[in-house]
Write a structure and sequence with these properties.
Blueprint (H helix, E strand, L loop, with lengths): L3 E8 L2 H12 L1 E8 L14 E8 L3 E7 L10 E7 L2 H12 L3 E8 L5 E6 L5 E6 L1
Length: 131
């Protein structure tokens, strides 16, 4: 099984937090997508960051999004596993979901990748992606 593990930070202000880390750790924002770039997004959240990738400290990746739930410090970090194989990603999703809570089903997304979110039985948030 091959997968990559990345920290996913849900932020009060993803742009400002990513810019701070880029400056502090020597890095650059590689990509950013807002909620407004997907169909059916409410006007109130269209400018919020849905997904941002920051490369820091020699190529390590941090992922960011603006928190869509009431923000609580220390409770908004998810572990993101990115797979190159849909079957492996789906298997990981199903295994992590056992006795946990599926927050977002693993399914094909408008941006072309499979994606799902789980809170496992220990309270850890996972985002599973197949690209």
């Amino acid at each position: 099984m091959t997968a990559q593990l990345n920290a996913y930070i849900h932020s009060e202000d993803a742009r400002a937090q990513a810019a701070f880390y880029a400056q502090a750790l020597g890095g650059e924002i590689l990509s950013a997508m807002t909620y407004g770039q997907t169909p059916g997004t409410p006007e109130a959240v269209k400018d919020k960051v849905m997904h941002m990738v920051l490369s820091v400290a020699g190529g390590n990746l941090l992922f960011f999004s603006d928190a869509m739930e009431p923000f609580q410090r220390g409770r908004f970090i998810s572990l993101a596993l990115t797979y190159g194989d849909e079957a492996e990603a789906r298997r990981a999703f199903e295994q992590l979901a056992a006795d946990g809570t599926v927050k977002y089903p693993f399914e094909l997304q408008p941006w072309g990748a499979y994606y799902g979110e789980i809170e496992d039985k220990f309270g850890v948030n996972w985002q599973i992606v197949e690209q």
